[in-house]
Structures are given as structure tokens and as C-alpha cells.
Design goal:
mainly alpha
Length: 210
């Protein structure tokens, strides 16, 4: 299976504008025909258009168009056995800060533990944004974290140190974009399992009681 990254979804303004035209006039038959033709040529076609539409500021209609497209599971899962495509869709909505769309790709079968960037899963990124109050609605972020956790998602720190680390509480103590936690975890990785587990409990205790 090929390794796909968000870099495989370049911003394609003209492609989005072409799709928005029939959407805005309510000609969904023409839109279906357009998207089907694109898919026949490129299995990433629909994901590329979705990726480009996830930022509402590109056009007034871009946000409602992205919501419509997210409801079209048949298009998003055109190749339902292609795990790489589904994982790429999850990466796309997380990169585009659309936590409200995370559940869509999880329901389609995306892997919640795929590394989106080095040593960072979707749960790392969503929990970090939740704890540091990025611009996404807090309710959306909480729903994304809950969905990722329910789907078996683990943060990189938790996966490294084991289940005795809280899946989300640990992020209150470890900023997932700072360098020192990685150094700390690397050092802890050299300890024996029992000592690692003891440190994991200390980290979790600090995170949830601070």
C-alpha cells in the first residue's frame, strides 16, 4: 500500500471553483457527473477538492460545500478497501483544523493511530489544540478527541509509555509541540519497564491534578 501524505493533496483552487459553480446553482446532477469524471482519472480527486474546501474563507459557498461533500460517503469511500485514502482523508481534516469532520473518516475506517507528522497522531494534535484553545470551537475539538479515543486512538506519548498514561490528560503537562517532552520520553525509554510505568503514573497524576 502506498504511503500518502497531505502533500499529495495540493491546493487546487480552479478545481474547487469548477465544483462550486454547479453546487451554488443547485445543479447536483452536473456536480455528480463532474466529480465522477474526476474520480475516473484520479482516485484522489474528491479528497483534493474536499481538502481545498475545508477553509471557508476561500469562498462563501466553500464551507457548506465541504459539509455536503463530507455527507457523500459513497464518493469519499469510492475505493473503500484503500486504507491509504481513508487515512489521508483523516489527515486532511485534522490538518485543515476541521475537527467536526474527524468522525466521518473514522466511521469510514481511517486508522486513528496513523502518524500524521513525526511522533504525532490525530489525537496528539486535536488534544493539543483543545488544551491550548486554538481557533476551532471547543465543542468540536472535544467531540474529535472523544471520537478518536472511542475508535482506539492513542497519543504518541501514551503509545510509547503504555496504557498507564492518560490518553488526553497527559497533554496538559506535555505540550506536544515542545521539544523537551520528546527528550524526556527518549530518556525514559532507556529505563526498565517498572520504572517507566512509575514515571508514567507521575506524569498522569501531574496532568490531571494540576
Amino acid at each position: 500500500m502506498p504511503t500518502l501524505t497531505v502533500a499529495d493533496l495540493p491546493r487546487s483552487g480552479p478545481a474547487l471553483e469548477e465544483a462550486l459553480e454547479p453546487f451554488c446553482r443547485g445543479d447536483f446532477d452536473a456536480l455528480e457527473t463532474l466529480l465522477a469524471a474526476r474520480l475516473a482519472q484520479d482516485p484522489l480527486a474528491v479528497l483534493k477538492v474536499l481538502h481545498d474546501s475545508l477553509f471557508a474563507e476561500r469562498a462563501v459557498a466553500a464551507y457548506p460545500f465541504s459539509l455536503w461533500l463530507l455527507e457523500r460517503r459513497d464518493l469519499l469511500a469510492k475505493n473503500p478497501r484503500d486504507q491509504a485514502l481513508l487515512d489521508l482523508g483523516l489527515a486532511s481534516v485534522v490538518y485543515r483544523w476541521r475537527a467536526d469532520a474527524v468522525r466521518t473518516f473514522l466511521d469510514l475506517g481511517a486508522d486513528p493511530n496513523r502518524a500524521l507528522i513525526e511522533r504525532r497522531t490525530a489525537l496528539d494534535i486535536c488534544a493539543n489544540r483543545l488544551n491550548f484553545f486554538y481557533s476551532e470551537p471547543k465543542d468540536d475539538l472535544e467531540a474529535a478527541v472523544a471520537a478518536l479515543t472511542a475508535a482506539g486512538g492513542k497519543g504518541w506519548v501514551e503509545a510509547t509509555l503504555g496504557p498507564r498514561v492518560s490518553a488526553t490528560g497527559v497533554f496538559e503537562a506535555l505540550d506536544t509541540y515542545d521539544s523537551w517532552p520528546e527528550t524526556a520520553v527518549r530518556d525514559l525509554g532507556g529505563l526498565d519497564p517498572e520504572t517507566q510505568a512509575a514515571w508514567a503514573e507521575v506524569l498522569t497524576h501531574c496532568a490531571v491534578t494540576a
